[in-house]
Amino acid sequence: MNPYIKALRAPFLAGSLVPVIIGTCLAFTVGYFSLYNFFLAMLGVASLHLAANLLNDYYDARGSDPINLRVTPYSGGSRVIQDGDLRATTVLGMSILFLALALVSAVFLIRAGRLLVVPLGILGIFAGWSYSAPPLQLMSRGWGEAIIFFAFGPLVTMGAYYVNTGLLSLESFAIGFPQGFLITGVIWINQFPDYQADREAGKKNLVVRLGPAISRCLYCLIMILSFISVILLVGLFEMHYLIMLAFISFPMALHAMGIVWREYLSRDNLIPAQALTVQIIITQGLLLSFGLFLSRLIYV
To answer: What are the backbone dihedrals phi and psi of residue 75, each rounded to the nearest 5 degrees, phi first?
Structure first.
């Protein structure tokens, strides 16, 4: 694979682009949709996500990645720096390029009258920077999981809803919770193979702090909370019952939880659960979006 493509870790874009689709579908339910703004939102969010991936590789190249011997296709970084495919400065330059691309999309949205993309974008940039970069490096302080939850869940759905409607709403924030839990699940499960290297490098994420045995229980809880939050969206926010279509993906979650429960100490045997967790993000999110879309058609 081309090292520039490999460095992007593009498959993980599902964690940010699916919430854009969800927020857009919520806007559609109240009669708003702009293809132009939707495209700019996808471009901006994707650019911020890719910049965050690259920054993470850049700073981990000085931390846990060089001593990580339990790399999987889903964890341990892209390895382009460790393998000598790209210089660290090249990876940093790529991240700056994508940050600039996100800025360009924000400028066009501002010209379309969406002025609040400025603070929303700043929050997104802060999340990506503070997760990996010193002096904060929240990923090493036990706060990385929380910032990922909000940055790739509620913040994205609310932003996507805003660029389509010009409005902010509590519902658009809340509907990001299921995806927030799932992207946290991705980060969480990927920390199991990295556990030894992270601990030796002083990268004290929550799996390192709590230990793998307790963390496998919390992975299961995170996945379950993703689906419970869908129920709460119907019960507390009176969203249409059709978003419960998201539960079609629940057997996938059960399968992933079973693998993690049994194989949490095995690098190779954990890989199917890592893959499933990413697949659940896509499947659950698209099913939830489809439920929103159908609910609008019912009332037209």
So the answer is: -145, 165
